[in-house]
Write a structure and sequence with these properties.
It contains 1 helix and no strands. By secondary structure, it is mainly α.
């Protein structure tokens, strides 16, 4: 479904003077069958599930970053609360 459609690969004709055949002379101008070009896959080990794996890893990274941001915000709010409480408590003790 998500696989790209490639046009068919062209076939190349090998000139007769480049072949290693001893039964054809070098000046032969007849049509020899074309040697098909081999299609290479870019990553044959990656199948159709590679996109799904990449999506799961990306979502995991994003969720981990969000969790870290929430944790940092919670720690900073807690520290601010402790500092403010300490300052207010210190003012009540100084009024003797």
């Amino acid at each position: 479904m998500f696989r790209p459609k490639y046009p068919p690969l062209p076939t190349a004709q090998i000139p007769s003077h480049l072949t290693n055949s001893s039964d054809t002379p070098a000046d032969c101008h007849c049509q020899h069958p074309a040697a098909p070009l081999l299609a290479r896959r870019i990553a044959p080990s990656l199948g159709a599930g590679a996109g799904a794996v990449a999506a799961v890893v990306t979502i995991g990274i994003v969720l981990t970053a969000l969790l870290a941001a929430v944790a940092v915000a919670a720690v900073s709010v807690t520290l601010a609360t402790v500092v403010i409480r300490t300052l207010l408590t210190g003012q009540h003790h100084c009024r003797r």
